[in-house]
Amino acid sequence: IALNKESLTKILNTTSSFYRFTSIKVNSQKSILVTNSIALNKTITFDNEQLTVITNGILFKYLEAWFSTNRKPILVQKKIMAEAVINLKKLQFAYITEKQAIFIIN
């Protein structure tokens, strides 16, 4: 998280340097750029790869939480509900122990 593009560029340069030092590889296909800026140039370079801002209204998952650039929470709510229904259907037919059930409920 950065206040402006210049700050983000500095952070990403430091990050790239650390990744090279520790031999960490980043999958650029899984990297996303989210902004609330109205600037026309909505790309940034990270580790010699161009990242483009995701389209407005697209859902994305970060640290196991769903987010959207849209100000309306209905899209995120629908996604969470859909995931909950899918997982409940899986549990409906699963054989679990009493201890596992207590863990899931708590």
Describe this structure in words.
The mean pLDDT is 85. The longest helix has 19 residues. The two termini are 33 Å apart. A hairpin with a 2-residue loop joins strand 1 and strand 2. This protein is an alpha+beta fold and 106 residues long. It folds into two domains: 53 residues, no CATH class; 50 residues, no CATH class. The radius of gyration is 19 Å and the shape is extended. 42% of the residues lie in helices and 15% in strands. A two-stranded antiparallel ribbon has the order 1-2. The protein has a two-stranded antiparallel sheet with strand order 3-4. It is built from three helices and four strands. This is 8683_t:CDS:1.
Q: What's the helix-strand series? A: HEEEEHH
Tell me roughly what share of residues is in helical segments: 40-55%
Query: How many individual domains?
Result: 2
Could you describe the largest sheet, including whether it forms a barrel?
2 strands, antiparallel
Catalogue the unreliable spans: none
The structure class reads alpha+beta
Alpha plus pi helix count: 3
Number of strands: 4
Give me the Rg, rounded. 19 Å
Mean pLDDT: 85
Principal-axes geometry comes out as extended
Strand order of the largest sheet: 1-2
